[in-house]
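Preliminary data (for renewal application), guanosine-5'-triphosphate complex.
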Amino acid sequence: MHQTFDAALELNLLHANQEGADHNREHFDQWGITCLNIMSSPGAGKTALLEKTIIAIKDQLKIAVIEGDMTTELDAERLRQYGVPVIAINTGRSCHLDSKMVAGGIHRLAHEYNPEEFDLVLVENVGNLVCPAEFEVGEHAKVALLSVTEGEDKPLKYPVMFQEADCLLITKTDLAPYLEIDLETIKANVKQMNPHVTIIPISAKTGEGLEAWFNWIKLQTKKDRVFATNL
Ligand SMILES: Nc1nc2c(ncn2[C@@H]2O[C@H](COP(=O)(O)OP(=O)(O)OP(=O)(O)O)[C@@H](O)[C@H]2O)c(=O)[nH]1
Ligand SMILES: [Mg+2]
Ligand SMILES: [Zn+2]
Ligand SMILES: [Zn+2]
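Predicted structure:
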């Protein structure tokens, strides 16, 4: 549970978390890894997206996953079958990953593998549209998912996630014809609060938009950044 007792305590909590996030980021940078923090409400399609992503790009980028769930290893087991290392973190009663938990995960990764071999660490956060956005874990970019079944008002009602996101994936677009949902309204609502966000509508089921998502990931990786500056 993420409870805030008073503003000063909240500030201390976030300050301590930031120190841990900086520590994690130093590890990632030292190892040449790009880390993406993938967040959404429960069931928006994070694990389904990771499955498709791993299958499509694991031969081009060496991937590890840090899988946050309150209790089970169900998602971790789903992803392990694709042959990438998956470090499972159970958060217990906490409804978000914090930087200390992720530090435990990356230290485990470094203990079991040579971390310098990896290009990309994908962190699947706990399903929750609110506090994961406030707790940095050392990521280089934040990815938010919003499924078409959630309604176009959600960015307005839960703004922090959408203000903080570097990339917004509007998921399950294959279901849009069955719903009264206007993707343009979602995009406009988000762009208004976060003009620099990249918005990609996707369907893990039909594959719509996935190529654009893979290209966005590749742009985030260190190698491509170095390559881009050499052009
Ligand atoms: N129609 C459709 N269903 C999808 C799509 N992506 C995911 N789903 C379904 O949505 C449900 C939830 O997907 P998950 O990938 O488990 O969602 P999640 O965000 O990882 O869920 P938590 O980890 O519990 O927060 C599953 O039944 C998926 O099959 C999609 O693109 N289209
Ligand atoms: Mg999941
Ligand atoms: Zn929380
Ligand atoms: Zn360390």
